[in-house]
Design goal:
Shape: elongated
Number of domains: 1
Structural class: alpha+beta
Strand order of the largest sheet: 1-4-7-2
Number of strands: 7
Radius of gyration: 19 Å
Oligomer: single chain
Strand content: 5-15%
Order of helices and strands: HHHEEHEHEEHHHEEHH
Number of helices: 10
Length: 215
C-alpha cells in the first residue's frame, strides 16, 4: 500500500498533466474527480485488471471526458437480439451461472469492435461485479446471425450453445482475445478514449491516470 505522501504525489502529477492539456475548467474537474472516484470505488476491478484502459464499450457520442452510468440489471430491451432469444439466453445463463447475463453491459478488449456501437469508452465497474464470456464466441449476436443465415431453425440456437465453454473468470484473457464480455455491475465509470487516445497530450494524460490508478 502506498503511503499518503506518494498518493498525494500521484494525484499532483495527474493534476499537472490535465492542466497542461488545457481541457478547460469543466473537463479538468470532471476527469480529475472521476479518476479519484475510480481509485476509491473500483478497487475490485483495478485489482483484477492488468491494463486499466483495456475494458472497452461503445457509447453514444458525447463531448464529455468522463461519465457515471447506471446499469439496468433486469428487463433490459435488446438493441439487435430478438426479445425471445434474449429471454431464453437469460434463462439458461441464470440456470447455469446464477444471473441473467444478457441483462448486462457488453464490453470487449477490441477497440474496433467497441467503435461499431459508438464512441469508445474504457469501463470501470463500481464495487463488486461479475462477468461471463466464452473463448469460442466473439459476439453472441453475430454467432446467432450466422447460424440463422445458414438456414438453421433459429429456435434451435440456444440448444446448440456449448455452455461448458463459458467462463466467469479470466477477464484479462477475454480482453486479449477481443471477445464479447457480459459485465453485471450496478454502475460504472467510463473514460472517453476518443479524447484520451487522440488528444495531442493524450500520452501524458494516459500515463498519469495509469500511474495514479495502478499501484
Amino acid at each position: 500500500m502506498k503511503s499518503t505522501e506518494f498518493i498525494t504525489e500521484d494525484i499532483n502529477e495527474l493534476s499537472n498533466a490535465l492542466k497542461q492539456a488545457n481541457l478547460g475548467d469543466k473537463y479538468f474537474t470532471q476527469v480529475l474527480g472521476t479518476v479519484e472516484q475510480i481509485k476509491l470505488h473500483c478497487q475490485p476491478f483495478l485489482n483484477e485488471i492488468e491494463d486499466p484502459f483495456s475494458l472497452l464499450r461503445g457509447l453514444r457520442p458525447t463531448h464529455e471526458w468522463a461519465v457515471n452510468k447506471p446499469v439496468r440489471l433486469d428487463g433490459r430491451k435488446p438493441m439487435s437480439t430478438p426479445l425471445w432469444l434474449h429471454n431464453e439466453l437469460n434463462d439458461v445463463f441464470k440456470q447455469e451461472f446464477g444471473a441473467p447475463f444478457r441483462d448486462s453491459i457488453f464490453c470487449t478488449g477490441d477497440a474496433s469492435q467497441a467503435k461499431v456501437y459508438g464512441m469508445v469508452f474504457c469501463v470501470f465497474p463500481i464495487g463488486t461485479y461479475e462477468y461471463l464470456w466464452s473463448p469460442e464466441v466473439r459476439d453472441l449476436y453475430q454467432r446467432f446471425d450466422f447460424f440463422r443465415g445458414k438456414g438453421h431453425n433459429q429456435k434451435d440456437f440456444v440448444n446448440q450453445l456449448d455452455l461448458k465453454l463459458y467462463k466467469t473468470n479470466g477477464l484479462n484473457d477475454a480482453i486479449a482475445r477481443g471477445h464479447e464480455i457480459m459485465v453485471r455491475t450496478k454502475n460504472y465509470y467510463g473514460l472517453n478514449m476518443n479524447n484520451i487516445w487522440t488528444d495531442k497530450n493524450s500520452g501524458p494524460i494516459q500515463n498519469a491516470i495509469q500511474d495514479y490508478l495502478i499501484e
